[in-house]
Amino acid sequence: MTGASRADVGVFGGSGFYAFLDEVEEVVVDTPYGAPSGPFHLGELRGRRVAFLPRHGPGHELPPHRVNYRANLWAMRSLGVGRVLGPFAAGSLQPHIHPGDFVVVDQFVDRTWGRPDTFYEGPVPYHPTAADPYCPELSGLAVKAATDVGVRAHPSGTVVVVQGPRFSTRAESRWYRAQGWEVINMTQYPEAYLARELGLCYATLALITDYDTGVEDDPGVEPVSFEEVMRVMDANVATVRKVLFRAIEALPAGPIACGCAAATNGLEPIPPAG
Length: 274
Prior knowledge:
Layout (H helix, E strand, L loop, with lengths): L8 E5 L11 E3 L12 E6 L2 E7 L14 H10 L4 E3 L2 E5 L9 E2 L3 E5 L24 H14 L3 E2 L3 E5 L7 H9 L4 E3 L2 H10 L3 E3 L2 E5 L15 H24 L25
Parallel strand pairs: 1-4, 1-5, 5-12, 6-13, 7-9, 8-10, 10-11
Antiparallel strand pairs: 2-3, 3-4, 6-11, 7-13
């Protein structure tokens, strides 16, 4: 792989977010875990090499439970990426978090099943910590970038990650809300955790597109639909790009003192043979 085909910052695009930079180089990356969601687009942003990949594929052909998260993260690291921003569309579970807001989540709750979710499959047993799965320094830069752009950003929150592709029942949504969790999504697990297993700094921006099953004391707020998610995302994708540009431009030139790179204590995952 040539130097031009490497990058130090990675960005995953979510629903409705399929392009990031102009004048890009398209790069196909093979991994021991199969094919990523599509070709990577590598480009320059204020002197930084950035790798962009729509996690659902270039035409949104991959539903959340079929995204090859391991291949996507492994490929990012293979390109030289050390810091990853993974924005996503999300539903609000709390009435004070409104459509159009951003939430820089700092915790997740996993409600998925059957997704390959670790690189540590033996023969050496290892149990990485996941107490704080998001990079605090990179998250702080994302909060500041959103504020600088002029959007309302919540600096912390918990995302509950559901299997999809269906949305929640009212009973499920009521339960999640009662736990005090802020937003709901279908892709943050295992993406955020796999980044931690590879020692990557990972942070995200949740763009709130809806109120999940509605707001119970306001019958005029309807349950989410995929069409509504895409409508709100389409209306805000330019703002998402501005926030990401600002966050990437603010990255320090050297390493940031977050400890993410040391999360695995130097134990490298052993990829499958062949």
